[in-house]
C-alpha cells in the first residue's frame, strides 16, 4: 500500500498545505511567477518564471552564482520570495503562516549534496529522522524505514554508519530519507556532485525509477550537463539570477540556435560544404526514425544528399540525433524529412551555435 503522510502522522499534522487554490493547470506541480529574491541591495533572482508539470524531471542548470541554491531554498520553502508567487500542487505557498509552511514542507523531500547524513546514526536511524520529527510511532517508523531501505537497495546495510558506506550508498540513504514522509515533490540539490561517473549514473537511474513507480515530480538543481542529458525531461538555464533559456529537452535540441540544446547534443565539426550546396541541420528526438532515412531521400525523392557530420545519442533514455547534410538547393527537403519523422532547418554558418562547455554561454550569451 503506498505510503501517505496521513497514514502515519496525527491527523492535525497530515493536513494539506494551507493556501488558496490558484488557476494553474491541473498538470502543473510547481509554478513560479515573477519571483524575485533580494538580500539587502543584492538581487539574487530576477523575475523568475518556471513551470514544472506533474511527473516531470525538471533540471535547473547554471554556473556558480547563477542563483540555483537560492531557487532551491525557495522551492523547499526554507525562504520566502521578496516578490512574486510560488504555487506547489495547486496551492499558493507564498503567504503561508509559519505553521502552514511546516506542514507544507512535509510534502517536499530534499536530497542534499554529499547526502548530509548524521555520522553518529546508522543508515536506518538517518532514514527514520523525519519520521521521528513527525512523531510517528516506533512500529510504523520501523516498517516505513525497512520499506524505504529495500526500495533503494540497502536493506543489507541498514545498521552501517555513514563512514562505512560508499558515496553512492550514502546518497541512496539520503534519497530514502527524503522519501520518508511520502512527498509528491522531490528536490535534488547537487545530489550527484562529487560522485564518480558510474555511481552518478546509478543514482540518476534510481531517481528516474522512483519517478516512474511513485509518480514523483523531481526538480534537479545541478551544474553538470551530463545529469541533464541522462535524466531530465525539461531544462532551464539560469544566469545572473534570470532564466536565459528553458523548455523540453527534445525541443531545445531541435532549436537550431539554442546553445543549451547544442550542449545537450553537441554539434561535431563537419566536412566543409561546396559553395553551390545548401547545408541543412536535421534533428529528431523521441520516436526513432527509420534507420534508412538518408538512403530513402535519394531513392524515393531523387535527391543528391551528402553527409557532412552528425551525432546520435540517447538523451534521458530517448534517442536523439542531429545530422548535418548538404544538397543542391531544394525547398522540398523539410517536407520530405517530416514524412520520415525528422525536422530540417536550413543552416547559415553564422547561425550555428558553436560547440563548447555550457558555461561558455555565460561569456557569449545564449540565443533562445
UniProtKB/TrEMBL annotation:
GO biological process, one term: amino acid transport
Residue intervals of the ABC transporter domain: 30-265
Molecular function (Gene Ontology), one example: ATP hydrolysis activity
Compositionally biased region (Polar residues): 1-14
Segments of this protein annotated with the region Disordered: 1-22, 348-368
Keyword vocabulary terms for this entry: Amino-acid transport, ATP-binding, Cell membrane, Membrane, Nucleotide-binding, Translocase, Transport
Entry keyword Nucleotide-binding: yes
Pfam families: ABC_tran, NIL
InterPro entries the UniProt entry points to: AAA+_ATPase (IPR003593), ABC_transporter-like_ATP-bd (IPR003439), ABC_transporter-like_CS (IPR017871), ACT-like_dom_sf (IPR045865), MetN_ABC_transporter-like (IPR050086), NIL_domain (IPR018449), P-loop_NTPase (IPR027417)
Matches recorded under PANTHER family: AMINO ACID IMPORT ATP-BINDING PROTEIN, METHIONINE IMPORT ATP-BINDING PROTEIN METN
Name of the protein in question: Methionine import ATP-binding protein MetN
Lineage, top ranks: Bacteria, Bacillati, Actinomycetota, Actinomycetes, Pseudonocardiales
Name of the gene: metN
Amino acid at each position: 500500500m503506498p505510503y501517505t503522510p496521513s497514514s502515519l502522522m496525527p491527523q492535525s499534522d497530515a493536513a494539506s498545505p494551507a493556501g488558496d487554490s490558484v488557476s494553474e493547470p491541473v498538470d502543473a506541480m510547481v509554478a513560479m511567477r515573477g519571483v524575485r529574491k533580494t538580500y539587502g541591495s543584492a538581487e539574487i533572482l530576477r523575475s523568475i518564471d518556471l513551470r514544472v508539470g506533474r511527473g516531470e524531471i525538471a533540471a535547473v542548470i547554471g554556473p556558480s552564482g547563477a542563483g540555483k541554491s537560492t531557487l532551491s531554498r525557495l522551492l523547499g520553502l526554507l525562504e520566502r520570495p521578496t516578490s512574486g508567487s510560488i504555487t506547489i500542487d495547486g496551492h499558493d505557498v507564498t503567504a503561508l503562516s509559519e505553521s502552514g509552511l511546516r506542514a507544507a514542507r512535509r510534502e517536499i523531500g530534499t536530497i542534499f549534496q554529499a547526502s548530509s547524513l548524521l555520522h553518529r546514526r546508522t543508515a536506518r536511524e538517518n532514514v527514520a529522522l523525519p519520521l521521528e520529527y513527525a512523531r510517528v510511532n516506533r512500529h510504523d517508523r520501523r516498517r516505513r524505514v525497512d520499506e524505504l531501505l529495500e526500495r533503494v537497495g540497502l536493506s543489507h546495510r541498514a545498521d552501517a554508519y555513514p563512514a562505512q558506506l560508499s558515496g553512492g550508498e550514502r546518497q541512496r540513504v539520503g534519497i530514502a530519507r527524503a522519501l520518508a514522509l511520502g512527498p509528491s515533490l522531490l528536490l535534488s540539490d547537487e545530489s550527484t556532485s562529487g560522485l564518480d561517473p558510474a555511481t552518478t549514473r546509478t543514482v540518476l537511474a534510481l531517481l528516474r525509477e522512483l519517478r516512474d513507480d511513485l509518480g514523483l515530480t523531481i526538480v534537479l538543481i545541478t551544474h553538470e550537463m551530463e545529469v541533464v542529458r541522462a535524466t531530465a525531461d525539461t531544462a532551464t538555464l539560469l544566469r545572473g539570477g534570470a532564466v536565459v533559456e528553458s523548455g523540453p529537452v527534445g525541443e531545445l535540441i531541435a532549436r537550431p540556435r539554442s546553445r543549451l540544446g547544442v550542449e545537450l547534443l553537441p554539434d561535431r565539426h563537419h566536412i566543409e560544404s561546396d559553395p553551390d550546396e545548401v547545408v541543412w541541420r536535421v534533428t529528431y528526438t523521441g520516436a526513432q526514425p527509420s534507420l534508412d532515412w538518408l538512403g530513402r531521400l535519394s531513392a524515393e525523392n531523387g535527391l543528391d544528399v551528402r553527409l557532412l557530420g552528425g551525432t546520435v545519442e540517447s538523451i534521458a533514455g530517448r534517442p536523439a540525433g542531429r545530422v548535418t547534410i548538404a544538397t543542391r538547393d531544394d525547398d522540398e527537403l523539410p517536407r520530405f524529412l517530416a514524412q520520415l519523422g525528422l525536422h530540417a532547418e536550413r543552416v547559415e554558418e553564422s547561425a550555428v551555435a558553436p560547440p563548447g562547455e555550457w558555461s561558455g554561454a555565460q561569456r557569449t550569451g545564449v540565443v533562445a
